[in-house]
Structures
1.
Amino acid sequence: MGKVSIAIIHYPVLDKQGDVVATSLNNLELHDVARSCMTYGVEMCYIVTPLPKQREIAEKLISHWTEGYGIRYNPDRAEALHKISMAHEIDEVVTKLRAQGNPVLIGTSSRGKGAPIGDAEMRTWIEEDERPFLILFGTGWGLPPEVTARCNRMLLPVKGKGVYNHLSLRVAIGIILDRLLGERGESR
């Protein structure tokens, strides 16, 4: 079985006009995604941003909960936040994963881009392939073409009923991780 990591991309991503921009981090993203990663056995969650102030804020928040008072107050949160690692760019993450093998890059999009792969097929691929998997989640208005072009495949988007399609990123991550890595009632 391949090991799965995720990367939340804050740069490069698109804005609503289609321009490549950097987006800001938020506190809930770090806490909620770290807990989802712990729940589903994700190896690591990389937060990708080249912005020094954003990195500083995230590292300070993580440090608060993984050292001193924070770890004593809520050890479970501390354990989950150890799943978060900061990276300047996607290539930095890919380089780290190469120590485990040639990583498989899987992109996500709410608009269904590229060569889509369904949840069941992706789940089987993860179970049968020993290589590390990196699932890329774009913030803002999603991953730009230069990032999706690097992906081996693109996951089919999470779709609800109707035309409204604006889930928060941390909710979409939870849904996708459950579909790909969650228990399905079968024996393992």
Note: The first strand starts at residue 4 and ends at 9.
2.
Amino acid sequence: MTRLSRKLGVEEKGQRTARSTDVYLSKDGMEVSYCTKCGVIYRQKRWIMDPIELNQLKEDPSVGTIVCPACQKMQDNVPGGFLTLSGEYLRKHEEEILELIKNTEAKSRNKNPLGRIMEITQEGDLLTIHTTLDKLAEKLGKEIYKAHSGELNHQWSHGENFVRVNWKRD
């Protein structure tokens, strides 16, 4: 291992690293199950949303039930990311921006049903959105930036799946 790679914390070539360090994600390869709270289905190490299959699974007594990682994070109030929006522009375009956020989350959930908005709070001129996944907070920030420009900053927490995204436009 070179001095630089050791300093940056990079593993030696050929070493496998864990795909995710999120403690809420299942490590075992359990059979088909569904979340009792939101209805997402776990099959072949993937989470999917399929209402038709969910109805079939609910009728089968041999199918397992679980609480998915997103519902667990929401229950424990452990967000994967924060998106903070601020500025004079936000006040004037708040409804439009919130609609963009809602649409972006809906599209994102088609790809990964574990990415959800946990909570949206407003304190004065600050609008804060808590998400279950870091990637969703990042995606929301990028979409707002693409549509409305402004300033966009990311602060990643090293060693954890957590991000703070800040967007501002005056």
Note: Residues 88-111 form the longest helix (24 residues).
3.
Amino acid sequence: MVSEFERVRAMLAQALAEARSRGASRITELHLVLYDSSPETEANLRQTVRELSLNTLAEHAQVILHPAPSRFICWNCCGLRFESDDPEAVCPNCGHKGFLVPPDITFALEHVEAG
């Protein structure tokens, strides 16, 4: 099973690649969607980002968390990922029932601000 540390490392690699592709000299903000808004999860996420971003373009980036409802994915035909408060959420693209993304996925990168 992938640890939270490895998920943050992968997210940070994605953010850094995005910043480099824009020719940015640094990342000023990391915008993350947070699916588990517990104070412990938030604190651990911020600390891990801080540790892993040392000596990178994201070293002093502000971590901005956006709480979100549950996240679903459509495995029927389209693979769309979507958010919903409804536990029986249906895909807005094809109308089939979505499957809840596992609860150990606590966050996702929304976008980066770079300068």
Note: Helices lie at 4-21, 39-52.
4.
Amino acid sequence: MAAPRFWREAPSRYNLVATRCGNCGSVSFPPRSFCPKCHRKSVGRMERFRLAGKGSVYTYSVVHEVPSELDMQKPYVIAMIEMDEGAKLTAQVIDVDPKDVHIGMRVRATLRRLGDEGPDGIIHYGYKFVPILN
């Protein structure tokens, strides 16, 4: 990812900023300038807001093979998370045995290091999800 694009997207990536349509009320992540449901009727009516960071696993997959350059623990879980506000997003679920992940599992967002551009380059951070312990 190019550095300018990375910095432009940083506020929504770090803060889970979404948009709510002032016309139909649907929530989109990442933020959009128009609603994917009601289209033109929403132009100028999209309200930005921060997601609370909690949701449930909507669906998931356990990845067993990882390219060596990614330096990731394997296996790992990638999931579609349905946020409490209604938006769905894709993220890694961490700090849990993949065998314990299940649809409906409650999770919360956490900021983690995603990678870097070499020893003197930009360090990339982003969200991942951890289980909510009762």
Note: The longest helix spans residues 3-15.
